[in-house]
Amino acid sequence: MSQLHTIIIAEAGVNHNGDLNLAKKLIDAASEAKADYVKFQSFIAQDNISSHAVKADYQIENTRDEVESQLDMVRKLELSAEDHQILFNYCQEKNIKFLSTAFDSKSIELLKEYNLDFFKIPSGELTNLPYLENAASLGLPIIMSTGMATLNEVKEALHILQQNGANKDNITLLHCNTEYPTPMSDVNLLAMQTLANEFNVKVGYSDHTLGIEIPIAAVALGAVCIEKHFTLDRNLEGPDHQASLEPDELVAMVSAIRNIEKAMGDGIKKPSESEHKNISIARKSIFTRESLPHGHKLSAHDLIMKRPGDGISPMKINEVIGKTLTSNVPQETKLSWELLK
């Protein structure tokens, strides 16, 4: 059985604050952490958000601005087509794969140019029929976040994707909670397994909790993909920084996930290669308590279980009791079958 490899997506998102230099530093951090992908967000603000849309509570808190509209906030975070090319090229320089989530049809068209390994559907588009049809028609593997969704909504979205050309074997569903940060009591990590069991698809986890323990637990529960927001500094102004990992935490998360992958093994319960040498040291054998004469018939009282375990196993004690000794034995003799008849 080959070792697992969890896809780790370092979600830069909009934590570049509209600054290409900051975006490049995020790529540096994701590359140094050895994530598989660094992911941005591709959108035309005007095509996604009406002038009437209000900010989420966490966005108001994190931007420290109650007056600014959601549209005005997001406009400042757009990446142009030229920006995308610059960041894509920089990812190649830094040996990390570029990824971005498109939020509208124009951005989907833009991302086609980059021959991405897969198409990422964000939670908010799971109930957007035209978007799902467009995404499915690309012919790419799909990773779809399921924040805020009911099981029936996920079922409907999967149906739409498959109706429009997506192969279920190439779809991965990410359990997700769309609150920044997500309270631990709302994570509901077992719902990830519910998705796997209900739809027979690959599953993963897109995380918005503080810290790294929940993504690590998700891998132990079978996640094949982990997505996690990160930033250079949680104190930066912007909607997502405060629910993001800082670079040293991203390094720790990636390292921990890779260790969990190694620890998962093949599932066969057997002594490991490293513990074989300790079997006889840790287990016990059957010994005599006292010195005993030739021809003595052994009783339970005569016997004691002691280390090392390279003699007759204590599991055989009922076969030893009642046997007679073939020679005199001193105190604390480790019995062998040759001494018994």
SSE order and pairing:
Blueprint: E1 7-13, H1 20-32, E2 37-42, H2 45-48, H3 57-63, H4 70-75, H5 81-93, E3 97-102, H6 105-112, E4 119-121, H7 129-136, E5 142-145, H8 151-163, E6 171-176, H9 190-199, E7 202-207, H10 213-220, E8 225-229, H11 247-264, H12 279-282, E9 285-288, E10 303-306, H13 317-320
Parallel strand pairs: 1-2, 1-8, 2-3, 4-5, 5-6, 6-7, 7-8
Antiparallel strand pairs: 9-10
Helix pairs in contact: 1-5, 7-8, 10-11
Listing every helix as H and every strand as E from the N terminus to the C terminus, the arrangement reads EHEHHHHEHEHEHEHEHEHHEEH
User: Regarding quaternary structure, how should these chains be classified?
Assistant: single chain
CATH C-level class of the largest domain: Alpha Beta
CATH architecture of the largest domain: Alpha-Beta Barrel
| Main β-sheet, spatial strand arrangement | 3-2-1-8-7-6-5-4
How many distinct domains?
Answer: 2
Helix content: 25-40%
Number of helices: 13
Q: End-to-end span in angstroms? A: 46 Å
Regions with little confidence, pLDDT below 50 for 5+ residues: none
Shape: elongated
Strand content range: 5-15%
Q: How would a crystallographer describe the biggest sheet?
A: 8 strands, parallel
For CATH, the homologous superfamily of the largest domain is named as Aldolase class I
- Could you tell me the radius of gyration in angstroms? 30 Å
Mean pLDDT, to the nearest integer, reads 96
What is the CATH third-level topology name of the largest domain?
A: TIM Barrel
Structural class: alpha/beta
Number of strands: 10
